[in-house]
């Protein structure tokens, strides 16, 4: 990686720092946008600030400074207010009213810019695509250090957002989940909503200059959405989303330098790669999140299915032994009896052999003594449930199917209670004897 | 009596009005704007140019106008379904999602021996990555805890970020510079060629045709996804197909008119049409009309004033149509809702007055003979009945006198006329039926039913009344007015204790007001 050997802390370091600050600044208010189901508001505001920028520019004839910020924040706030107004008065759904407002404002901005195009140099491209790579070029002397202006601007936005979120944490929490409760608690959910919108607009505008709109729009949504997959506590979610945002910014710059080099190109857009990295982190979370990840839940489901299959298998062997003691059963017969594939049966047999429940010989498989005890527990659960369900007045036709499910989730203490509550008989409703409880520790969980 | 809800338009002429009314504001806006061109500017060349545009003399203008009209129509049709699916901004997400496909197509086309800048190649790339975006949306939406808006936002930003990264690589290519790729994002409506218009035409017919062919299926998908699934419709496949039509109309529109205009055309005409009608078939027609009219007007304005970007003007025309619809819309516009609320309030006031007089008479009558019941009541006793001010009450009495429902006797007392009496009997009947229903079937305490019934009595439909009568027939006696199941409000406390058993069944039938 000779590309990374050219890494220059005063250059690349500053780009990464600006990216990290931008990502954190956006992800903090983004959490509440995602929770309020208005994730796309970041995108809407980032387009809708155009007329504000244009108006500020037409009035002051300068491209930076307070006027632009004021114009953009006013336009951002206008978007939020108009969206809410159309949603409430027109009974239009949130997304549609957002779509109406931001396209209209953007078109208005375009017309304003084109009208002014004779005298000024302001093209939409430079509003939408700030260049993160240009960060180190524009610096402010700060004692002996040269600090990029962008870093100072974004740093103060991060501080502002962090202060807002920590000051109003409880209010934001309540109003995001239950606006009615917020109002009854004595603060206006609406005022808080508009404060949040102002914050979103300021964050968006500050980030445009630094990184272009795509990075900030992504960081409003993707890290908080990733955090939602990983946790259900709001405080954890906020911290997590900021961390994920920072991580995707760092990874993004690294990959912007290294990945194109693999194909013989120079580096690519850092903001674009940061966005892509946040998307990849989301994908990883979607697949591997401990609580909700698709692969994790799939594995969990497979393990459960395997446990159930194994228990059904030893129970089947136990029942066969009841009729004809000490017999071995072929694997194919087992697979047929358990209504499953031969492969799954083999895997299950191997697993049980490893645990010492089964003996495998040329004749087939048979239960060991330990296996017999475990099997007796399953069968006992099954037959106890059947007796209990019959005493509860469930139709005798249905009890087998119910017991078949419940037997896998019944432990020793539950079995004892079932025995007390069900009929005290030693025989289950189908006429089979209920096995005795063995005192040795069973492997039932 | 005609209820306030439908009195604005008689039912029969409603359907005709529906087809004409939505057109009015469009024609109005169109003609004003186009007439303003020659009139207000006054330059001779401006006039000539406007005339050339209006009569479609320019070949280029003809192409542009035709193209944007077709596009608006197709987007309007597709937009209706995405709007009802609560995915109005899917056009936004998918049009951003096409960008990496464009970049990849540009990068990979030379290695497959294709011309990188040819339109079909780029469109193929855009379509493939759009379809990938659709799949990603469906994937994210089905994750636990993920909502629709987050799915759209993630796909929008991540795909667009990938596209930006790819385009930045494309720009380093020594051979082809990416000039022209930007117009995929911003669009150049005015430079539309006839082949573009043909492409738009074919794709527009295709993407509008799919929802029209599968109208029933898509309708079911939009209104009740679970029901559609239970009826055996392939819901996921239908959903994918619907979003594919969005991709189709989006990629065609993107390169012709640009991203923001595409989003606007997908969202605004459909949302505006929603104000005019509650029926999906009519909504689709109206949205298509609105879309094409916005395309027509917008590109005409842009042709007359060349320094106005046509895409932006089309969006602005769309928004004007939207706000006109939002205010004037016949089904759920602001004005009609205000009007309905006012009509309802007026009806409620009148009904309160009539029922008040009736119940006062009923209470003061000592015998059940109908002639004795024609007692006049004083304004003061009416005033005690509910929380209305003297002014409100006198105004309402005056209004009812002109309507011929009550008349004022020489001593100033108020008495019901024959017409007013019939109306009052109907109202009291409704009120008490509902009270009885609440007591016998909903287990509401007799002391509370008056308030509950007071809120509901004004909006009881005739069908519901018939059902209530049927339901309560065993306890009640047909169409006559049941006795009040609770002491009337202005009654002195003492009289309430005279009849401690207030259960409705305990009262004799001949107290019920009207003799059999």
Q: Order of strands in the sheet with the most strands of chain A?
A: 1-2
Give the full name of the CATH homologous superfamily of the largest domain in chain B: ABC transporter involved in vitamin B12 uptake, BtuC
| Number of separate strands of chain A | 4
User: Helix coverage percent of residues of chain A?
Assistant: over 70%
CATH architecture of the largest domain in chain B: Orthogonal Bundle
Secondary-structure element sequence of chain A? HHHHHHHEEHHHHHHHHHEEHHH
CATH class of the largest domain in chain B: Mainly Alpha
How much is the radius of gyration of chain A in Å? 32 Å
User: SSE order of chain B, as H and E?
Assistant: HHHHHHHHHHHHHHHHHHHEEHHHH
Query: In what order do the strands lie side by side in the largest sheet of chain B?
Result: 1-2
Largest sheet of chain A: 2 strands, antiparallel
Oligomer: heterodimer
From the helix content, strand content and strand pairing of chain B, which structural class follows? mainly alpha
Helix content of chain B: 55-70%
Strand percentage of chain B: under 5%
Distance between the termini of chain B: 24 Å
Q: Which structural class do the helices and strands of chain A define?
A: mainly alpha
Q: What is the total tally of β strands of chain B?
A: 2
List the helices and strands and how they pair.
The complex is a heterodimer of chains A (445) and B (516).
Chain A: H1 2-5, H2 9-35, H3 41-48, H4 50-60, H5 66-90, H6 94-116, H7 124-128, E1 139-142, E2 145-148, H8 149-167, H9 169-177, H10 179-185, H11 189-230, H12 234-262, H13 270-288, H14 294-323, H15 331-337, H16 342-354, E3 358-361, E4 364-367, H17 369-391, H18 396-406, H19 412-421
Antiparallel strand pairs in A: 1-2, 3-4
Chain B: H1 11-20, H2 23-41, H3 44-54, H4 59-84, H5 90-97, H6 99-108, H7 119-141, H8 148-170, H9 183-186, H10 194-213, H11 215-223, H12 225-230, H13 235-257, H14 259-276, H15 280-304, H16 310-328, H17 334-364, H18 379-383, H19 390-402, E1 406-408, E2 414-416, H20 418-441, H21 449-456, H22 462-471, H23 493-498
Antiparallel strand pairs in B: 1-2
Helix pairs in contact in B: 2-3, 2-15, 4-10, 4-13, 4-14, 4-15, 5-7, 5-8, 5-13, 5-14, 6-7, 6-8, 7-8, 7-13, 10-13, 13-14, 14-15, 14-16, 15-16, 17-20, 20-21, 20-22
